[in-house]
Specification:
α2 runs antiparallel to α3, α5 packs across α13 and α13 runs antiparallel to α14. The chain is elongated, with a radius of gyration of 29 Å. Helices cover about 50% and strands about 10% of the residues. With about 450 residues, the protein is α/β, with parallel strands linked by helices. The N terminus and C terminus are likely disordered. β5, α9 and β6 form a beta-alpha-beta unit. It has 15 helices and 10 strands. The protein has a 6-stranded parallel sheet with strand order 7-6-5-8-9-10, covered by helices on one side. The chain has a 4-stranded antiparallel sheet with strand order 2-3-1-4, with helices on both faces. It has 3 domains: about 160 residues, Beta Polymerase, domain 2, CATH 3.30.460; about 140 residues, 3-Layer(aba) Sandwich (Rossmann fold); about 100 residues, no CATH class. The longest helix is centred in the C-terminal third of the chain and has 55 residues. Catalyzes the NADPH-dependent reduction of glutamyl-tRNA(Glu) to glutamate 1-semialdehyde (GSA). Pathway: Porphyrin-containing compound metabolism; protoporphyrin-IX biosynthesis; 5-aminolevulinate from L-glutamyl-tRNA(Glu): step 1/2. Keywords: NADP, Oxidoreductase, Porphyrin biosynthesis.
């Protein structure tokens, strides 16, 4: 099948997030860092998909594509996911939430603005999305379609932060986990400032966990597979309450800690069930990784929490952000409309240019015919050409102005399409037909 230039580019999101997919399924769907590029390269092999981005976090696995045929593109993505994860494509389809065009754009803007996050208002997600986009762009897996979209998404996220209080206080999965630990410790008469915690992992999540623990007065033992990374993080934290331990000693020291946070990028569990011994005290271990770092262990003296278990703390602070979230969703709706309007404005200029080109060619053709038949002396050609140029410019002035105005409103879709049809123009245009974008529609699964 050949891609047809006259086909309209569409946007599609296939999403598996904390809202619709449990952590066990997200683990199975997770694409490891080493496989992201070959995965996206295979996604782009479909003739119906032109560009793609993969966003993988502890809360979501999402594929963003610009495409031409939704059914072919969707089936290809499911098949590719099945190949890379070993899951049945029907099971993948059953768990997927599919969003198209304005709903896809609204969702992506919401993700970038942290309105779709487990912890609404957290600031990590914008950076994660930027990194995902950069990886695709640097490897020529996305171009103008996704670049336009991402630039709008990041502008929208910045505007949400500036115009609302959604991120007024430092929030993240890491800070929520530390707050939950503090809450659980108080229930048994303990405080963070008298606790020594083990932190495994020196990436962004580990760094944030360390900062929040130190702010609460806790002491930390830090482990990283690459010991130098642990030293680098300790240097950044610049605290006498951080101790570095060798990762090789994990099994030996593991059971000495009542409080543990693990957030590595390992592809399999770093804490195996046979490493965990019983203890005389209640232990609280937080697994903030995807796939998870801690193997399932059933012990009366041990509670293991994953990212999906943070809801009880999140709900306590949800009310304070609800009003800001309402304002933020209005910003999202505005940016979604602006994005499609902007795309139409870009697409209408080639139409205007082509119409002017056709008028000029028609005028010159008739001028040549008039000279050839002797209706007009050839020495008059230059002057008559100027007259004709002024005439068709004057004639087309109002129609082209109306066309530009139409491009700034979704109500102008039929006008733009009619002009394309009348003048046989096949430029790629993203239309805004029947535009509607409401908050609750973003969680509706697309009918097949």
């Amino acid at each position: 099948m050949q891609r047809q230039e006259e086909q309209k580019t569409q946007y599609m999101v296939i999403s598996f997030s904390h809202k619709n997919t449990d952590i066990a399924m997200r683990e199975k769907l997770n694409i490891t860092q080493a496989k992201i590029l070959p995965f996206l390269q295979e996604i782009n092999e479909s003739e119906s998909i032109s560009e793609s981005i993969l966003l993988c976090t502890c809360n979501r696995i999402e594929i963003y594509v610009s495409m031409y045929d939704r059914k072919i593109a969707r089936s290809h993505i499911y098949a590719t996911l099945a190949k890379y994860t070993g899951l049945d494509s029907i099971l993948i389809e059953q768990n997927a939430i599919v969003r198209l065009n304005e709903y896809a754009i609204y969702h992506i803007f919401g993700v970038a603005s942290s309105l779709d996050s487990l912890v609404v208002g957290e600031t990590q997600i914008t950076g994660q999305l930027k990194n995902a986009y950069k990886l695709s762009f640097d490897n020529k897996l996305c171009g103008k379609d996704m670049t336009r979209l991402m630039h709008f998404a990041f502008k929208c996220a910045a505007n949400v932060r500036q115009e609302t209080d959604i991120s007024a206080h430092s929030v993240s999965v890491a800070s929520t986990a530390v707050r939950m630990a503090e809450h659980k410790l108080k229930q048994v008469g303990q405080n963070l400032d008298s606790t020594h915690a083990l932190v495994i992992g020196s990436g962004e999540m580990g760094r944030l966990v360390c900062k929040h623990l130190l702010n609460a007065g806790a002491k930390i033992t830090l482990l990283s597979r690459t010991k130098q990374n642990a030293y680098n993080l300790a240097g950044e934290l610049d605290s006498k309450n951080v101790n570095i331990e060798s990762f090789e000693n994990l099994a030996e020291i593991l059971n000495n800690f009542t409080l543990l946070f693990s957030a590595t990028s390992a592809t399999e569990c770093v804490i195996k069930a046979d490493m965990v011994k019983s203890s005389q005290v209640k232990r609280l271990w937080f697994d903030l990784a995807l796939p998870r770092d801690i193997e399932s262990v059933k012990m009366a003296d041990l509670e293991i929490f994953c990212v999906d278990d943070l809801q009880e703390i999140i709900k306590e602070h949800k009310g304070a952000r609800d009003e800001s979230a309402k304002e933020a969703h209005k910003i999202l709706e505005s940016y979604t409309r602006d994005f499609f309007t902007w795309l139409q404005t870009l697409s209408v200029e080639p139409i205007i240019k082509h119409i002017r080109y056709l008028a000029k060619q028609s005028s010159l053709k008739e001028l040549d015919r008039a000279i050839k038949k002797g209706f007009l002396p050839s020495e008059y050609r230059q002057n008559v050409e100027k007259i004709l140029h002024g005439a068709f410019n004057s004639f087309l002035h109002n129609p082209t102005m109306r066309l530009r105005q139409a491009s700034e409103s979704h109500q102008g879709d039929p006008i733009i399409e009619a002009m394309k049809s009348m003048f046989d123009i096949g430029d790629e245009v993203v239309m805004l037909s029947n535009y509607k974008c409401e908050k609750d529609t973003t969680i509706v699964k697309e009918d097949i």
